[in-house]
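Propose amino acids for all 195 sites.
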């Protein structure tokens, strides 16, 4: 989708994403994978190189996705010198919920947004000999502990409380998200428009 922009050269059509980037608004949308993570890193790097003081608004509407790709995005969110404000504008499930909850400069959810946390899932069918299966199982348990530590850090809950909450597909309404510490405040869309 393109939008018209008035400039000294007349009217120019630019992609809506570029126009929003100019306003320091970027998206985590769709499935989180290696391509989405690299695009996210590029955008955060560019916005930091332009201005390290002004906030970056990250708008989240994602079902989650790959843990390793999500952890790359998590590291970028944590290391960004420019403050990153997180907005759940629809759903933030699984890895997207972890990313949303990790915002250090404001985590806001729209009145009909929804978060969901659960234990890490195996993406592929398990196959191989017993040693391979044990190795996969051990790795999955370590990943679960890592994700629980991250969520505990950002929610103020204990790892045990996070583990109980994530033991099944646990959906959180906006009010429940705030109560559990996944989110700071329920806001209207006007807050995003105001910048």
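Proposal:
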């Amino acid at each position: 989708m393109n939008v018209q922009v008035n400039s000294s050269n007349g009217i120019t059509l630019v992609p809506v994403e570029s126009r929003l980037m100019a306003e320091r608004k970027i998206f985590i949308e769709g499935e989180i994978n290696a391509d989405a993570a690299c695009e996210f890193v590029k955008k955060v790097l560019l916005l930091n190189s332009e201005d390290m003081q002004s906030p970056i608004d990250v708008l989240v509407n994602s079902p989650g996705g790959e843990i390793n790709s999500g952890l790359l995005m998590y590291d970028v969110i944590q290391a960004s010198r420019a403050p990153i404000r997180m907005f759940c504008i629809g759903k933030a499930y699984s890895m997207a919920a972890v990313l949303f909850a990790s915002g250090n400069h404001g985590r806001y959810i729209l009145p009909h947004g929804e978060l969901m946390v659960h234990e890490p899932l195996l993406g592929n069918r398990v196959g191989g000999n017993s040693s391979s299966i044990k190795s996969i199982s051990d790795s999955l348990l370590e990943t679960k502990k890592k994700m629980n530590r991250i969520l505990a850090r950002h929610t103020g809950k204990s790892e045990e409380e996070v583990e109980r909450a994530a033991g099944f597909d646990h959906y959180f309404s906006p009010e429940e998200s705030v109560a559990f510490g996944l989110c700071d405040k329920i806001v209207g869309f006007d807050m995003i428009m105001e910048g």
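The first helix runs from residue 16 to 22. The chain has a mean pLDDT of 91.
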